[in-house]
Amino acid sequence: MGQRINLKTIITKIGLLSILVTFTQCATSQKIDETAPLQFKDAYFQNWVSGVRGGGAGFMVYLPVDGTSDIQLETVYFKGKEVKLSFDNSTSVYSGRYTDPKTVRKDIVMSSDPKEEYNNKVSEIEEKIPFELKEGECIIAYVKNGAKGYFKLDKLQEKELKAYPMRPRQ
């Protein structure tokens, strides 16, 4: 009799755990639209590096759109990163810039007086994006009529690396 109760308890716990995992997966998954609500000309990304040590490195995402629309693009998820988008009315291009925090040099105050070290900033920890993406794929979050949606672009073209100069030309 004692073994039956233990077996029932184990089966019940496994069942509850399975249900919990299922609901957790459903809650974190996002519905991705099959077709993009906007037409893009030539969407691409471009890696960049600063010419100054500690100046940073990262990538830019460019999403040129055809015409005007009531849809506003907010965020692009690309290369495992979340990048906010901004729109340039003159060129009709959404763009987003990602800077790898590990490539930016931060000044740190080291002192025997803890009060002087108080203003040191804590390193930011990047959160994992809620999507599984293959190489070159991106998910774009948008808002249309107050409702948030997502769609996927299968392949962003890569343009040549942009290396910023160490100092301005004279």
Structure, briefly:
By secondary structure, the chain is an alpha+beta fold. It has helices spanning 2-28, 114-117; strands at residues 32-33, 44-49, 57-64, 71-78, 81-84, 86-88, 93-99, 138-144, 147-153, 157-163.
What does this structure look like?
By secondary structure, this protein is of the alpha+beta class. The chain folds into two domains: 1-30; 31-163, no CATH class. It has helices at 2-28, 114-117; strands at 32-33, 44-49, 57-64, 71-78, 81-84, 86-88, 93-99, 138-144, 147-153, 157-163. The strands form two sheets. The chain has a five-stranded mixed sheet with strand order 1-9-8-4-5, with no helix packed on it. A five-stranded mixed sheet has the order 6-7-3-2-10, with no helix packed on it. A hairpin with a 2-residue loop joins strand 8 and strand 9 (147-153). The N and C termini lie far apart (90 Å).
**Strands ordered across the widest β-sheet:** 1-9-8-4-5
Biggest sheet, in brief?
5 strands, mixed
Overall residue-averaged pLDDT value: 81
Per DSSP E runs of 2 or more residues, the count of β-strands stands at 10
Report the radius of gyration as a whole number of Å. Answer: 23 Å
Uncertain residue ranges = none
Number of helices: 2
Estimate the strand proportion. Answer: 25-35%
Order of helices and strands: HEEEEEEEHEEE
End-to-end separation:
90 Å
In helices, the fraction of residues equals: 10-25%
